Every structure is written in structure tokens, then in C-alpha cells.
Amino acid sequence: MDLSGDHHVHTSLCNHARGEMEEYVQSAVLRGLSCITFLEHLECGIIYSHRTWLEQKHFTEYFREGKRLQKLYAGRITIRLGVETGYNPAALDQLRDMISCFPFDHIGVSYHYYFDGSRHRNMVSRRSENIKALIAAGTDHVLDEYFNGLIRACSELPCDKICHLDAVLRHVPGIRFKKRHYNLITKLLTTMAGKNIGLEVNTAGISLRSQPYPAENIVRQAQGLGIPLLAGSDAHRPDQVGRYFAQLSSLYR
Ligand SMILES: [Zn+2]
Ligand SMILES: [Zn+2]
What is the DSSP letter of 98? Predict the structure, then answer.
């Protein structure tokens, strides 16, 4: 796995990360990285208590500032302007429209928001209102929805990689995948391999559970299928750029 670039960082534009784009670039330069890929949150049609994503006007600002930084830092670091598209089966046209509005260098797909019939619940959140609602919906059912959604997303959305594949329900106490969920993961990886979609190895998992997302057995399975691996810190603060990459280098060469 190439560890010379961090291919998943956010900024304050998403409304839940800290720091300006240039601070992330400076942090990447300090860490000796040769590439940084911003992967800002895109969500459409989500009914939620607050905005955790960029809207059209924020993406316009993102490209304006990103292009300025690309010129300013040319020769020192490659800056790529990407997007982390949140899957929403009810808003595919809106998502595709937004993606086609901007010349994204890199497109990751995640699935953050589960619709419980009245509103969306964030499947990676630690907030108790999300966790209670997801438990009430049935965690096994939510996991079925999540993995089946990602399988469909591989065909329904433009996609270069799947992000933090097994981070779903990460804050639900005692969460465990059943055999049928592992079967869905195999189906997802097979679909990705057939479409040359990469797998993100996301080091945010190391601080939370001592290993990246996804777990080693899933990464090994992906490697066996010839799926490209892409390193990302999921930084939501400038000092998190490239976090734990040294540990990744000993795990996956
Ligand atoms: Zn985020
Ligand atoms: Zn995400």
C-alpha cells in the first residue's frame, strides 16, 4: 500500500471538522507526504438535526480555495479535491447531479445515514439518540441494509473507493457481525473487484479500536481479490493528517 499520500481528510467546511484547507496542506507537508486528497462530505436528501456535509455553495468555495492552494503548493505537494459521497437510495439523482457539477479528482463512497421511516440516523455516530434509534430498528437489519446499500452503490454511483467499510455501528456496545453479514462483505468485495473500485484503509479505527477500518481479515480478503488499497486518516483536525501511517506500513506493505 502506498503511504506517501493521505487520501481522506476533511475541513471546517463540513460543519463538524476543525481547520482550514491550507492548515491540512501544511500538516501534510510537515509530515513529508507527497499527496493529500481532500474528501469532503456530500449528502443529499438527509433528514437530520444539523448539517454534517457540504452544500453546493460550500463545494464552490472548496474548489476556489483548493485551486488557489494547488498553485501555491505546486512542486511541494499534490493536492487533490475529492468527495466522500454518502449513499442515499432515495436521492440518487441528486447525488449524481452534484457529483457531475464539480470536477472531483477522487470519489469515495460511504453509507452514513439509515432512514428509520421518519428520519435519518447516523450509523457511525456516538450520539445516544442515533444509537438508541438504530438499536430499536434492529442492528442486524441495519447491517443488512448497510452492506446491501454499499453493494448497490458500486453500480449506482460513480465510485473510486469504498470508505471505512466496517465502521458501521462502531459506537453500538457489543456490536458483532453475523455470518450473513460476512457473506455480504464478500459479495461487496467481489463487486468492487469487478468494477476496479478500491478499498480504503482508514486509520481513524486505530484510535478507537486499535486497528484500522476495515479489520485485517477483510483487508486480506480484498488483497486476495486484487483490490487496490488506499490509505486515509479521515482527519477532522489538521494534526490528524497521516495519523498512524507508521503502523499501517508494518501491517500492510
Ligand atoms: Zn466527517
Ligand atoms: Zn465517512
Answer: H
Q: What is the domain count for the chain? A: 1
120-151 tens-digit pLDDT: 999 999 999 999 999 999 999 999 999 999 99
DSSP character for 34?
Answer: S
Q: Measured in angstroms, how far is the CA atom of residue 111 from the centroid of ligand 1? A: 12
**Phi, psi angle pair for 145, to nearest 5°:** -60, -45
pLDDT digits (tens, 9 = 90+) for 190-200: 999 999 999 99
* CA distance linking residue 200 with residue 1, whole number of Å: 10
The closest ligand to the CA of 15 turns out to be 1
Distance from residue 34's CA to the centre of ligand 2 (Å): 23
- Expressed in angstroms and rounded, the spacing between residue 88 Cα and the centre of ligand 1 is 16
Q: List the grid coordinates of 235.
A: 482527519
Query: Which residue intervals of 117-178 are DSSP H helices?
Result: 128-137, 139-156
| CB distance 85 to 97 below 8 Å | no
Residues 6+ apart with CB under 8 A from 55: none
Ligand nearest to the CA of 232: 2
Q: Residue 75 belongs to a domain with what CATH number?
A: 3.20.20.140
Cα-to-centroid distance, 36 and ligand 2 (Å): 17
Which range of residues forms the domain containing residue 76?
5-251
